[in-house]
Amino acid sequence: MSTYSVFSGFFASPLTALARTNDPKTMLRRFLALDAVVTAGNGLAYAAASGPLGRFLGVDAGLLLGLGIALVLYGAGVGYLASRKSPPTLAVRGVIEANTVWAVLSVVAVIAWFSPSTAGAVWIPLQAVVVGGFAALQYAALRALRD
């Protein structure tokens, strides 16, 4: 039995339950759409309230403003992919890789670069887990699509 069949068998039921469908293409589109909504929403909050959020999280307001704008644009791009009947595999892989890099860099930033407030020290790793979760769900759905 291959590692992939163990992996896909282990995650098949939870993926189906999360996506509420057995169709891998629909699963992938739903996971992309959820990512787009959460990412764009987070970006809007960062951009619109960068000053207060920056003070609350202990992160530079200018950095939050820039990240907010970037996240809104990224969320729009992911939303566009989710709206496609068949999202291109290469673009989906790009989203998975970008989400993975974001999750890793968020943790590194807390450890090596930032001196966040207590709220920031909780929020930043928490959002990294969410983004990493999106990457894992999208990867599993993409793998299921290829079978």
What share of the residues lie within helices?
over 70%
Average pLDDT over all residues: 88
Say how many strands there are.
0
If you compute it from the alpha carbons, what radius of gyration comes out, rounded to the nearest whole angstrom? 17 Å
How much of the sequence lies in strands comes to: under 5%
The helix count comes to 6
The gross shape turns out to be elongated
Q: Segments where pLDDT lies below 50 for 5+ residues?
A: 1-13
- Oligomeric state: single chain
Q: Main β-sheet: number of strands, strand sense, barrel status?
A: none
Organism: Streptomyces longisporoflavus
Keywords: Membrane, Transmembrane, Transmembrane helix
Transmembrane segments: 31-49, 61-82, 94-114, 120-142
Protein name: Integral membrane protein
Report on the structure:
It contains 6 helices and no strands. The protein is mostly helical and 147 residues long. The protein has one domain (3-146). It starts with a helix and ends with a helix. Mean pLDDT is 88; it is low at 1-13.
What would a concise description of this structure say?
This protein is mainly α. The chain contains 6 helices and no strands.
Output the keywords:
147 residues; mainly alpha; 6 helices; 86% helix; 0% strand; disordered N terminus
